[in-house]
Amino acid sequence: MYLWRKTAGPCWLSAREKRLQARAHGALAIIARPGRKHVQIEIACTSRNELRKLVEEFGGRGKKLRRDWLQRFAHKEKPKPVRIGKRLVVVRSPTRREAGSFPHTLIVPAGAAFGTGEHATTAMSLRLLEEVTRGTEPKFVVDLGTGSGILALAAKCFGARRVVGIDIDPTAISTAKASAHLNKIDNIDFQLGDVRRWKPAGAIEVVTANLSSELLIEILPKLKRSNWLMLSGVLRAQEKEFLRALRRHKIEIVDVRRRGKWIAVLAKSSA
User: Fold this and answer.
1) What is the mean pLDDT of residues 192-200?
2) For a FRET experiment, which of 2, 11, 127, 162 has its CA 20 to 30 Å from that of 141?
3) What is each CA distance from 212 to 12, 34, 90, 144, 242, in whole angstroms?
4) φ and ψ at 192, to 5 degrees?
5) Bridging pattern class, strands 188-192 and 162-167
6) Contact criterion met (CB below 8 Å) for 265 and 209
7) How many Å apart are CA 265 and CA 124, to the nearest integer?
8) How far is CA 17 from CA 10, 29, 147, 170, 183, in A?
9) Residue 39 in 3-state DSSP?
10) Contact call for residues 267 and 246 (beta carbons, < 8 A)
11) Do the Cβ atoms of 116 and 110 come closer than 8 Å?
12) pTM, rounded to two decimals
């Protein structure tokens, strides 16, 4: 077994994704990380010849996997369901659905776009969203940098009437729509667009934004028009600068969550 791998930007991927999908025969993995424009693309190959053709056509690099790679990977990677309060559990596959006291289960496969619920920034945002929506059904939720669509999907599970998810990456939008279809969740408007050019329309009750600190600070003038803000993707090393920016825009800081090297902020507009 062989593995082909390449790091590329959104434009490169968008121009070649159909060809990659055809070569991969269902084994294409696109891995995105918060705060990074480039994604890592991987295809598992069954022969050295197949690997060589991928390198010749797309560049990148390849390696031969150990014979016991699947057993080693399965032993190492055993993701547990992510429990969000008492209302939601996030799993990677339909076979991992959990019964019990959770009214909602989301299936979010790993690898296609950032946001499976396991990363600290996503998990903290999900928990903040669950807490803020307890006992209420927000009329309008916007998810900026939607990625896999997990926060938008969760908002629907928590009773939001209207949900919009925006991302600059066409792969993310395709993945988010596929996730909604997989989970049989309708009426989420996933839009391809740059959050810098996003124009808020109407009264937005909740904005979730899992983006880089620099980008969040840049769009704060737009965000402060909303009621609740759940902002993540900020490193602990950037915390002081980010919180100063919120105060400068007269945005009330309600809570700051910290996990590993990341923080997530719950804020409220004072406008």
Assistant:
1) 92
2) 11
3) 21, 7, 24, 11, 10
4) -85, 120
5) parallel
6) no
7) 9
8) 10, 11, 17, 10, 24
9) strand
10) yes
11) yes
12) 0.70
Q: Does 131 score more than 70 pLDDT?
A: yes
Q: At residue 71, what is the residue type?
A: Q
Q: What is the domain partition of the chain in residue ranges?
A: 2-76, 114-269
3-state DSSP assignment of residue 87: coil
CATH class (in words) of the domain with range 2-76 = alpha beta
Residue among 31, 30, 97, 84 at smallest CA distance from 230: 84
Please give the radius of gyration of the chain, using alpha carbons only, rounded to the nearest integer.
Answer: 19
- Round to the nearest angstrom and report the end-to-end CA distance of the chain: 58
Phi, psi of 193 (to 5 degrees): 180, 165
Burial of 104 (0-12, 13-18, 19+ CB in 10 A): middle
| pLDDT for the residue 113 | 46
Cα–Cα distance, 179 to 128 (Å, whole number): 21
